[in-house]
Amino acid sequence: DTETSILGIDISLPVIVAPAAAHGLAHVSAEAGSARGAAASGTIMSVSTYASSTLAEVAQAGEGAPQWFQLYLSKDDVANQNLIRLAEDLGYKAIILTVDAPIGGNRIRDAKNNFKFPLPLPNVPKKSGETKGQGIGAIFAAAKNDFAPFDVMYVKSLTDLPVIVKGIQHPDDAEVAILAGADAIWVSNHGGRQLDGAPASFEVLGEIAERVNNRVPIIFDSGIRRGQHIFKAIAMGADVVAIGRPVIYGLALGGWRGVVSVFDYLKADLKRVMWLAGAYNIDDIKNIKLRLRNLVCEGEV
């Protein structure tokens, strides 16, 4: 049985859609297509501020399925308030506050390719400037560029929705976020695209989960591709995992049906791993202890 729940939302498997920018680069249906696929798969769609679809288009495509809105704070407080109010009015179920991207990382391939967004990002406040034709660094630079615990409290003051703090890589930061009012912790290194040399998310998950100690749910992302990855993340303390690139790959290859195929594969593979490992349900996985191996080669510095 792969069914579980997160923040009061029942889902068919412990895998949700991570917020990722500009699904319109992959398919003409953009985030609306991803949302339709997530809804058909019985899971949660997370929508980025930097989406190619409007929040309204994504909500309509989901047809009432649970969706979360990922907020990049603007320097404009009124714009922040308006975005959160719009998400509430459209029925979004939580606000994800991303704190690990105050500026863009050193994305070498983007620089070499001189990548610019060929499509507008319609949810970005107009005062932040034109997004079409801009690189991700310029778009990050137009948003809020410093974060403190007050920002969690500020977002909490603007909404009654749960607030999830995304981009946690250390137990102390998890503690700070919880004390500031976070309703959930999202362990992530932003898909490895922000700070080169930072630890893999899985390396820090266990110690963060130990510090959180079930006070709030934990979402985990970065590198989920197989049922074993899902299983191991949950065994190490995550409540659910999130996928970004696989959703976009499925969307590119087959639109919303391609997204469904990704979740179908992960669900079938997770069931296989659970069966072989002796876990009947998600709670059983949480009670399994992983036997971790030292992966450093002899003689390696």
How would you characterize the overall build of this protein?
This protein has 301 residues and is α/β, with parallel strands linked by helices. The protein is built from 11 helices and 10 strands. The strands form 2 sheets. An 8-stranded parallel beta sheet has the order 3-10-9-8-7-6-5-4. The longest helix has 33 residues. The C terminus is likely disordered.
Spatial gap, N to C terminus: 43 Å
Total number of beta strands: 10
Number of distinct helices: 11
Low-confidence stretches: 295-301
Question: In which order are the strands of the major sheet placed?
Answer: 3-10-9-8-7-6-5-4
Structural category is alpha/beta
Main beta-sheet annotation = 8 strands, parallel
Oligomerization category of the chains in this entry: single chain
As a whole number of angstroms, the C-alpha radius of gyration is 19 Å
Mean pLDDT: 93
Strand content: 5-15%
Shape: globular
* Secondary-structure element string: EEEHEHEHEHHHEHEHEHEHH
Q: Helix proportion of residues, in percent?
A: 40-55%
Outline the fold blueprint.
Layout: E1 4-6, E2 9-11, E3 15-17, H1 30-40, E4 45-48, H2 55-62, E5 67-71, H3 77-89, E6 94-98, H4 108-113, H5 136-142, H6 149-158, E7 163-168, H7 171-179, E8 184-187, H8 201-212, E9 218-221, H9 227-235, E10 240-243, H10 245-277, H11 282-286
Parallel strand pairs: 3-10, 4-5, 5-6, 6-7, 7-8, 8-9, 9-10
Antiparallel strand pairs: 1-2
